[in-house]
Amino acid sequence: MIKRLFLSYASDDKDLARDLERSLKAHKLPVWRDEHSISPGAKWFDDIEDGIRDSRGVVVLVTEASRRSEWVTYEYSLARGAGIPVIAILVEGTAIPTPLRSFHAVKHENPDKVAEKIKKALRDQSRAIGRDRASSAPVLMAKFQEENGDPIRATKGKTPELCMEMWLEQVPKETKSVAFEIPDDGIRDNKWIAKRASTRPTARERAFLCDDIQLYGDVEVWASGIGKGPGKWSGSWRLYEALMHYYRSRSYSPGVRAALKQIRLN
Hints:
Blueprint: E1 5-8, H1 14-26, E2 31-32, H2 34-37, H3 44-53, E3 57-62, H4 64-68, H5 70-81, E4 86-90, E5 104-107, H6 111-134, E6 139-144, E7 146-147, E8 150-151, E9 162-169, E10 175-181, E11 191-195, E12 207-215, E13 220-227, E14 233-238, H7 239-247, H8 254-265
Parallel strand pairs: 1-2, 1-3, 3-4, 4-5
Antiparallel strand pairs: 6-9, 7-8, 9-12, 10-11, 10-13, 13-14
């Protein structure tokens, strides 16, 4: 199957999206776009998720409308969590959202020039992702604590706090402890230090496990390794991204799917 580019945009920007799609196709870059890629009667949420997972990259049209769109945010967050290249197309006068600043950005101009720049950005970012994987950089993982397949709720209500575990994989053996921080003043105890439990660490262990996390929505998580040489490092992730690192290769219950949606939207 030929992998397509997933085009992420706000509904107010359909004309821009159609113009870009035509240019990408003219440069022999197949495109997944919701208007013609979702089958009648299909579960559109599932089709969008499958479209992202099966894509060779996600192209985000960044406009004032898309900056406000929860769906556009969800789409590029899912791609980031799944290790799929993301390219931001900046329409004139629009500031790039903070989560997209670490990705390749292209200014919106002549659609043909943009298509050429997207092809180059895809090549560059695919190589970079490959290098990151090869270098075994630390990766934040998270999963819900479950009972009979459903996430455990810490509180009641329409948007409850959910119990989850969080840990790091691919941590250098020289790292002795990790300082975690959630930069949100609304969260109690948002800073803590976790020590390594194992004296003989492996790359795939659940290092620095934190098993008492209770959150209701997406947050940024900072982590800094404490140790000598390669044991000293820093990184940042979104909670939703960390959850998708764990769940993307697993089948999960409708309850977990609903919990992931809650985290993504809040």
